[in-house]
Design brief:
By secondary structure, this protein is α/β, with parallel strands linked by helices. The chain has 2 domains: 200 residues, Alpha-Beta Complex (Quinone Oxidoreductase, Chain A, domain 1), CATH 3.90.180.10; 123 residues, Rossmann fold, CATH 3.40.50.720. It is 29% helix and 23% strand. It contains 11 helices and 15 strands. Helix 8 links the parallel strand 11 and strand 12.
């Protein structure tokens, strides 16, 4: 099969012919119909993830068709249209038994722990726990974007952040995660303020439900406090930046909630005294379990959520190295989907 292969961190990957994977016991192999290009893939390419062993095939947001089923897999067969969270949980540990698959200590992530979906085929472990059957009305491009960015934002905003109608919610960073969060928070009835350096991204944020937009600048915090009458109820760092974290915490009103979704490979500085004195909440959110997808899929089917609108570009494998390299300069507006 053809696949994008990283041989050195930070050096452009190449397209190579590599062996097609075989299904492990309990797992399946999919023909990749669509896969998303995510900033997490860029972090992996740069060497920010210690789980990656070279040579490596990235890619963790995916949808496809089952082509092979491993021993011991029940309920799934060749030809099924499926997607999956980027966190493949074991289903057997204490956290999994409590329903917290997204923090499973035995989790395996395609594109990080093993070869991923920037290829014509990909293997998935623990199939019975992690596969999500796609409704007939859901296309592969849209489904691919659900597994990381959209599902991550849905759980962060709705389940972890507890966003309610009428609250002021500020989303910092309008890439795929941030724009998903804008759409979801707006659908929940929140007043959404989007912050980014890119005017095109802010324009998209308005079309997805942002009431106000702020172009990132030294005056960002004051602009937010003015718009919200004293500070936001919820802020979210959808990009991953120490500078954003500082602005997000300063933009909160007392007893506000901060959602950290963007990765922070270089660490972060926290004013713990402010967290204590203002009774602020710092909330980490990491993915979403497969068994919690039905609520999100129902909202997509009803038209209340429109993840297909977030897709702004579709490319083939040949264009992936250049697209991955472009992330070095910043996150483009919208979601890029790869069709291998």
């Amino acid at each position: 099969m053809r696949a994008i292969v990283i041989e050195q961190f930070g050096v452009l990957p190449t397209i190579q012919d590599v062996p097609t994977p075989e299904p492990a016991a309990g797992g399946v192999v999919l023909r990749v119909e669509a896969t998303g290009l995510c900033r997490s893939d860029w972090h992996g390419w740069q060497g920010h993830d210690s789980d990656i062993v070279l040579p490596h095939v990235p890619g963790h947001e995916l949808a496809g068709t089952i082509t092979a089923v491993g021993e011991g897999v029940n309920g799934w067969q060749v030809g099924d249209r499926v997607t999956t969270p980027f966190i493949c949980a074991c289903g057997q540990c204490e956290q999994c038994k409590e329903g917290n698959h997204q923090v499973c200590p035995n989790q395996l992530q395609p594109g990080f722990n093993y070869w991923g979906s920037f290829a014509e085929y990909v293997a998935l472990p623990f199939a019975e726990v992690n596969l999500v059957r796609m409704p007939e009305s859901l296309d592969f491009d849209t489904a691919a974007g659900l597994g990381c960015r959209f599902a991550t934002s849905f759980r962060a905003v709705h389940q972890v952040g507890r966003v309610e109608a009428g609250e002021n919610v500020v989303i910092f960073g309008c890439g795929g995660v941030g724009l998903s969060a804008v759409m979801i928070a707006a659908a929940l009835g929140a007043r959404v303020i989007a912050v980014d350096t890119n005017p095109a991204a802010l324009e998209l944020a308005r079309s997805y439900g942002a009431t106000d937009t702020v172009q990132a600048a030294p005056e960002t915090v004051q602009a937010i406090r003015d718009l919200t009458g004293g500070g936001a109820h919820v802020t979210m760092d959808a990009l991953g930046s120490n500078e954003i974290v500082q602005q997000a915490l300063l933009a909160l009103r007392p007893r506000g909630r901060h959602l950290q979704v963007g990765l922070l490979p270089s660490g972060v500085r926290l004013d713990v005294s402010r967290l204590i004195g203002q009774e602020l909440e710092w909330l980490g959110s990491h993915g979403m379990a497969a068994h919690t997808y039905p609520e999100m899929l129902d909202l997509v089917a009803s038209g209340n959520l429109r993840p297909a609108d977030l897709i702004t570009r579709t490319i083939g494998l040949d264009e992936v190295p250049e697209a991955l390299d472009a992330l070095t300069a910043g996150t483009p507006a919208g979601v890029t989907v790869i069709r291998p």
